[in-house]
Design goal:
Length: about 425
């Protein structure tokens, strides 16, 4: 199987990213598929993580710290920005095209044997677990795709489980309250696991503690980000865990919220080792962290930032980081598109769209996209004075740059699918 064949095979299977629907909320298919593969997810320890926001950043930071500690680290994340290869990486390097084709072919060969028709995400998850076993990783960091209990990644039993936070998202499957969502996310916590709990609401925290983990470390009780200062190119953090304090460590990610993400990741790694990280290892690991498409600066003069905020709580954080960390001297321009299922008025309100001098409404190339006209209408209803409607993401970026001066700032956000289209286009245009 060549890469094109592998991608075509994937596209023939049910894909939540395209349809927005889950065919069968069950682990039966993925369990049968993994069984005929010999359960490769049990060949190495797993750090499993879920959360409404921040889990991608926590996965990236956790993986970087483990790599700096001298381990061979597999990381499984979703969705991808530009290429499906991004979902499966070893030591922060995405899987090569030929390796991806080979491991997808291995899954395809066993589909009939297992007697199942797996979804796109189940195939990629199985491929990741198989690849990590083939290359003999020391540990795998695995990010949940959706909620937790019925997510395909939950065939693995996390030695350490991380919950970043619980917000209102995917309410069509686990609503209507945060308590309902917490119960679904708590499904990844297994007896005997060490739980790193970033959610601080007492009612929700009780849901996770009730799952019976061997040990629980809670944010602001057992671990914390005690100091969080703006620094050139990121944040300067003071991190505390049960193993001790780590003052003034630099993290090259933007936004105050990344301090809590770094605290979760450090706690998880120290829980995994059962010991404190040496300060030199911590500094090396944090300095190496990269998380494309999440408050990523892709251009200067004008300042151009892309951020994959895709729900109201993420949009609120995005707006705060944009204002507090950058505070542009000139005009601010917002390029925004989103998927159906989001309330455009709520998203735009969280982004503080009415504070931007220009809003360019667009739509990602997805059957799930909200129309650019719907986004534009919501912007006007919010009171945005200058609204452009440019349906194609690349052309929307062009329109924003045409109106931007050297002192202005352009923020492209609203969906990872918007960022996935904008990012390569902007990198070709900007020095």
């Amino acid at each position: 199987m060549q890469l094109a064949d592998a991608l075509a095979y994937l596209d023939r299977h049910s894909n939540y990213d395209v349809t927005g629907r889950i065919r069968d909320p069950s682990l039966e298919s993925i369990e049968r598929l993994m069984a005929v593969m010999g359960d490769p997810q049990r060949a190495y320890p797993v750090i499993h993580l879920t959360g409404t926001n921040g889990k991608g950043s926590v996965a990236a930071i956790t993986s970087a710290l483990l790599t700096a500690s001298g381990l061979r680290v597999g990381t499984a994340t979703s969705p991808h920005l530009e290429r499906v290869n991004e979902r499966i990486s070893v030591d922060s390097e995405p899987i090569a095209d030929d390796e991806l084709a080979d491991v997808v072919a291995a899954v395809a060969d066993l589909e009939l044997v297992a007697g199942v028709q797996p979804s796109y995400f189940e195939i990629v998850t199985a491929a990741a677990f198989r690849h990590f076993a083939d290359v003999a990783v020391d540990v795998a960091v695995v990010e949940v795709g959706l909620l937790g209990r019925w997510d395909a990644t939950n065939v693995a039993d996390g030695q350490v489980c991380i919950v970043t936070n619980v917000g209102l998202d995917h309410q069509e499957y686990a609503g209507p309250t945060r308590l309902h969502i917490a119960r679904e996310k708590a499904g990844i916590v297994k007896p005997g696991s060490h739980l790193i709990l970033g959610e601080t609401d007492p009612e929700l925290a009780a849901v996770f503690r009730a799952t019976g983990p061997a040990e629980v470390w809670e944010r602001d009780l057992d671990f914390s980000c005690a100091g969080n200062q703006l620094a050139l190119g990121g944040r300067l953090l003071d991190l505390n865990t049960p193993y001790g304090a780590h003052p003034e460590v630099f993290l090259p990610l933007h936004g105050r919220h990344q301090g809590d993400n770094a605290a979760c990741a450090l706690a998880a790694v120290e829980a995994f080792f059962g010991a404190a990280l040496h300060d030199d290892v911590l500094a090396e690991g944090l300095a190496s962290v990269r998380w494309p498409g999440r408050f990523e600066v892709v251009g200067h003069q004008p300042l151009v930032i892309v951020d994959g905020a895709h729900n109201p709580s993420g949009a609120d954080v995005c707006a705060s980081v944009f204002a507090e960390d950058f505070d542009p001297a000139g005009q601010s321009i917002l390029v925004v598109g989103m998927l159906q299922g989001r309330d455009p008025a709520e998203m735009l309100g969280a982004l503080r769209a009415d504070e931007f001098g220009l809003v360019v409404a667009t739509a990602p190339d997805s059957p799930r996209a909200a129309s650019a006209s719907t986004v534009a209408a919501a912007a006007r209803a919010l009171g945005c004075d200058d609204v452009l409607l440019v349906p194609q993401v690349a052309k929307a970026c062009d329109a924003a740059l045409a109106r931007a001066g050297a002192d202005d700032a352009v923020l492209v956000t609203g969906s990872l699918y918007v960022v996935g289209e904008a990012r390569p286009h902007l990198r070709r245009l900007l020095p």
